[in-house]
Amino acid sequence: MSIIRSVITGVGSYLPARRMSNDDITKIVDTTDDWIVERTGIHARHIAADDEKTSDLAIHAARAAIAHSGIDVQSIDTIIMATTTPDNTFPATAVTVQAALGLHHGAAFDVQAVCSGFVYALTIADTFIRCGQSKTVLVIGAETFSRLLDWTDRTTCVLFGDGAGAVIVQGSEGEGTNADRGILTAHLHSDGRYKDKLYVDGGPSSTGTTGHVRMEGREVFRHAVVNIADTIRESLEATGMTIDDVDWFVPHQANKRILDGTAKRIGLPPEKVVITVGEHGNTSAASVPLALDGAVRDGRVKKGDVVLLEAMGGGFTWGSVMVRW
């Protein structure tokens, strides 16, 4: 049976030039490098310059993905951008990217699912392609999360960083089997009962301010390991695959303890897990495409590999996407 598959044909990423080490943070807040590394696995993160907006990071990543795919930029008919830190309350930051790329057709919009944003955006792109709404989609995850941090709160300010990642997704004919290239299955979830476990204490209709990140770390950790493992099993069951069929696991880079706990829970060997949290910190919606870009460009992810993407973020939101490269 012939079907349309959504194939990732290009990847790109961008990190701001400023690298903030744990030692740099100890000059701002009462903490130590040992404390941060032991609890998170993070050694450094990148911070956007004062005049650098989320759209600037996104444009760099988008251009890198376009160049990697080799497509004509004018063939892009949809831009879906995942971000929690838009340039403005409106319009969508995606339209700023659209204009910068010289595009005046198609659709461009933002998706807000915090750290799960890229997985949500990629799933939307897959749906658009399979139903014929789009043929070539630029999917971006970009954040200037440092703008939301309370730099006096050592439990949160040490965790996050800024960055952007992007992919080009195009429709291609497949046979409807797991041997097809492209997205094989995707699953999204949310549970608003836990929205106060990880949130920002501000917004246009509440305080009229941007606000700062607030988090109950233990609760987030507990739910993350369970929810992520569940959605991974969901992807495996939907495709009839086993964990042994997965070549690479590219998770949201929140905390190395969460990554280790998830891998152990699902029986995935550590050498199959792509980890960038040590140098990037948690870049929210940017973390999955940043990690994916690194693994593709250094040769780990090869054509034909099965790649499992997952994320969980505030809301709670979570989800997974299984892709054959």
Strand content: 25-35%
Structural class: alpha/beta
Helical proportion? Answer: 25-40%
Based on the coordinates given, report the CATH architecture of the largest domain.
3-Layer(aba) Sandwich
Give the end-to-end Cα distance, rounded to a whole number of Å. Answer: 20 Å
CATH superfamily of the largest domain: Thiolase/Chalcone synthase
Gross morphology is globular
Run of helices and strands: EEHHEHEHEHEEEEEHEHHHEE
Counted by DSSP, the helix tally is 9
CATH topology of the largest domain: Peroxisomal Thiolase, Chain A, domain 1
Number of strand segments: 13
In round numbers, the mean pLDDT is 97
Low-confidence stretches: none
User: Looking across the biggest beta sheet, what order are the strands in?
Assistant: 1-7-6-4-5
- Largest β sheet strand count, sense and barrel closure: 5 strands, mixed
What's the CATH first level of the largest domain? Answer: Alpha Beta
Computed over alpha carbons, the radius of gyration is: 18 Å
List the helices and strands and how they pair.
Elements: E1 3-14, E2 18-21, H1 22-26, H2 33-40, E3 44-47, H3 54-69, E4 78-82, H4 93-100, E5 107-111, H5 117-130, E6 136-144, E7 162-174, E8 182-190, E9 198-200, E10 213-215, H6 217-239, E11 248-251, H7 256-266, H8 277-280, H9 287-297, E12 306-313, E13 317-324
Parallel strand pairs: 4-5, 4-6, 11-12
Antiparallel strand pairs: 1-7, 2-3, 6-7, 8-13, 9-10, 12-13
